[in-house]
């Protein structure tokens, strides 16, 4: 009996010393299943939208690609964050030296999944722009689960739901809108099913054109096309500014005789979207509500 009591005492003491056993973290992602035994502490990400979300959730990282950091994330250019390559090409030597316990990729870096998985557990949070909001919500919830931030994520998503409702109510009162991206002196139009299609599909803005090509690159268009289409609202994304190759290029490009004849120009309804959040950190937990707010405020000003 005495021996039994001693054994029980040892078991109780061992449990007290070890502490509670962490529950396994299991998530599904774009390239499979990820199992983690604890909340990661040495995180690197190649996706700036994910970095935007981690920053919103207060999750620290040890390495990032430092090219094209938007203004609200320039703190990650500091030397205490390791440069781990570009958005497209990982620096495997730098990664190996960092010894991360989680690598997060997305979009441009997704093809490196297998190689990166040999270094550390790797999570692919590539954002599906053709299913913008549901996929954004799913990726946000994955991050919440991985980093034990689920309550924070749900609170933020609830706020976004409210923003969406308010914006849709304003969008119901306008005729239509057209989204264009300017790059290197060229103009492309984007519609439903494109990288900016969620402005129509989720924010409720009726597209000015129905037959634009789906995909990431849009349809090349002329100023004559924009004048003929003559949308009530023209939303402009300046890619040159987004990638630091010419600030304000879109405003100069669009300031011409044909554009001056459009009703959007004449009614001051040419909306220059924040290029960094719409092109670089799109789908982040900071960026997405900021994008919705930008459209909401533009519609509200004009009504």
From TrEMBL:
PROSITE patterns named in the record: FE_B12_PBP
Gene Ontology terms describing biological process: iron coordination entity transport
Annotated localization: Cell envelope
Pfam families, A to Z: Peripla_BP_2
Keywords: Ion transport, Iron, Iron transport, Signal, Transport
Cellular component, GO annotation: outer membrane-bounded periplasmic space
Domain Fe/B12 periplasmic-binding: 42-303
Keyword check for ATP-binding: no
Family: Belongs to the bacterial solute-binding protein 8 family.
Protein name: Putative ABC transporter solute-binding protein yclQ
Phylogenetic lineage: Bacteria, Pseudomonadati, Pseudomonadota, Gammaproteobacteria, Oceanospirillales
């Amino acid at each position: 009996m005495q021996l039994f009591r001693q054994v029980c005492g040892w078991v109780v003491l061992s449990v007290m010393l070890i502490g509670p056993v962490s529950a396994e973290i299991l998530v599904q992602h774009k390239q499979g299943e990820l199992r983690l035994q604890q909340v990661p502490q040495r995180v690197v990400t190649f996706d700036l939208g994910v970095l935007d979300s981690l920053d919103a959730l207060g999750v620290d990282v040890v390495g990032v690609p430092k090219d094209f950091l938007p203004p609200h994330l320039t703190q990650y250019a500091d030397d205490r964050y390791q440069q781990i390559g570009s958005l497209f090409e990982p620096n495997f030597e730098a990664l190996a030296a960092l010894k991360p316990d989680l690598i997060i990729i997305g979009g441009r870096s997704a093809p490196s999944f297998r190689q990166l998985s040999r270094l550390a557990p790797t999570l692919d949070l590539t954002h599906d722009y053709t299913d913008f909001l549901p996929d954004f919500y799913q990726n946000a919830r994955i991050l919440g689960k991985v980093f034990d931030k689920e309550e924070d994520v749900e609170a933020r998503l609830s706020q976004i739901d409210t923003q969406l409702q308010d914006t849709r109510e304003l969008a119901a009162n306008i005729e239509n809108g057209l989204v264009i991206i300017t790059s290197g002196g060229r103009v492309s139009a984007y519609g439903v099913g494109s990288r900016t299609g969620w402005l129509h599909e989720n924010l409720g803005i009726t597209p000015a054109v129905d037959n634009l090509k789906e995909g990431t690159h849009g349809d090349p268009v002329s100023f004559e096309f924009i004048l003929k289409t003559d949308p009530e609202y023209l939303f402009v994304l300046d890619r040159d500014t987004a990638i630091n190759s010419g600030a304000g290029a879109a405003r100069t490009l669009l300031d011409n005789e044909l554009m001056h004849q459009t009703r959007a120009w004449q009614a001051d309804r040419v909306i220059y979207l924040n290029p960094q959040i719409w092109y670089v950190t799109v789908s982040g937990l900071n960026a997405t509500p900021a994008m919705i707010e930008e459209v909401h405020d533009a519609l509200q000003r004009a009504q």
